[in-house]
Structure formats: C-alpha cells, structure tokens
Predict the 3D structure of the following.
Amino acid sequence: MLQHIELQNILILDIETVSKSPNFESLTPQMQQLWSQKSAQIQQRKAEDNRCTDAENYKASAGIYAEFGKIVCISVGIFTKENQLKLKSFYGHDEAKILVDFVQTLQQFHRENRYICGHNIREFDIPYICRRLLVHQITLPDCLTIAGKKPWQLEHFLDTMNLWKFGDYKHYTSLKLLCSLFNIPSPKDDIDGAAVSISYWKDDDLNGIKNYCKKDVVATARLLMRYQCRPLVEDTQIIYTN
C-alpha cells in the first residue's frame, strides 16, 4: 500500500516536549508527591546502580509524560506538486496557542485518503498531542478522535518506526539509526531529546528547539521516501516558512 501513496497526501510531523516546570522543587506539593510515585515506577525499570533522586529523574524524564510535560514545538512538512518539502512550525511558551494553530492546519489538510506520518507517532506524538488537547479543553479533530479504535481504523497514521518492523514488535528502532542505515543526514547534530528541557528552561532557546524539530521532520520525510524507493528531497527543495 505504501508504494501507492502520493507524497502530496502525507503530512509529516514531529513534536518537542519539555517538563511543565523548570525543576522538581517548583512543583506544587501535590504534584511532587504524584511525580514521586511516577518516578518510583520509572526507577523500577532501571538497574540499581543507575537509579537517581526524584528531582534528577524529573529533570531527565518529566518532559516525555503528558501529565508532567508540555509541547513547545510542533513542526509539520507537506510535499508540493513540484516535489518540494514545505515546512512550518508552531512553537512558543503558550502551549494552548500552539495546539489551536496546529489543529487548524491539520483540519485544513486532512480528508479522505490523506495521511499523517512521523517516527513513533502512534506511541508518542499522537497520544501526547491528544492528551494535551484535552488538558486545555480543545476539541479533538476527527482524525485525532482515536480512543478505543482498532488498528485498522488508524490507517491514516503512517508510523515510520512501525513500518520498519514488518510485524516484528520486539524492539524500538531510532530515527537516528535508520537515517544512518539509509545514508540520510542525521537530524541529531546539535541537541538531543534529553537536552531539550534544559535548552528550554536554562537558555530559553525556542529557535534552536524549532530548528531541531524541523530537522526531525526532514529526516522522517526522507526516510519515508527511502521506504518508497524514491530519490531523496534535496536541501534546495526544502522551503522554510518560519
């Protein structure tokens, strides 16, 4: 099926998330207690000599949990009929505005026979977006109203990680690894996911986070093109709108 999907019918997306507060100490007492419970669950999965305090764990991991984190950037890419990749980012300190603007774009794009693509979006990006939409009491668009649906009802999601598995569910394969395998320039050349919260809270580097997010979108788009045995989009064919 993948070989027959036109690139113009695919929206590529990636999100960047950070902890909701700059550190564990700035949380309310109730949220500190709730994070300590969450942290204990995380620690159980670690080797004993690799365990850390609740505060250290919050700094390292809180951003990946929608209950304790927030979205600071959503970048999307859409292919044009001229085989260009047009990129746009929604980013800033106001998560609600990011989500509202993103949903408007998604509603304009999505209709029958159109797809949303990303790396590990079924396990991370899409659930995270949906949860944060509900936190802000923003109505989920039809294409994200997915709670309780069967896998075959979610065929409008193209997950480049799941596509690589070919039915094998034993392990996670990173975007960086697949980019190396397919000779695609790696998006991980400045900061990585664990450092995004630090970059946000310490340096207020929204522009750097935005650029990092866009690189993931470009890498994912190129990986999808490899899956379709297409020539890669060149740097000169990428249009940055913001």
Summary: The mean pLDDT is 91. The beta strands are 10-19, 69-79, 85-91, 115-118, 157-159, 238-240.
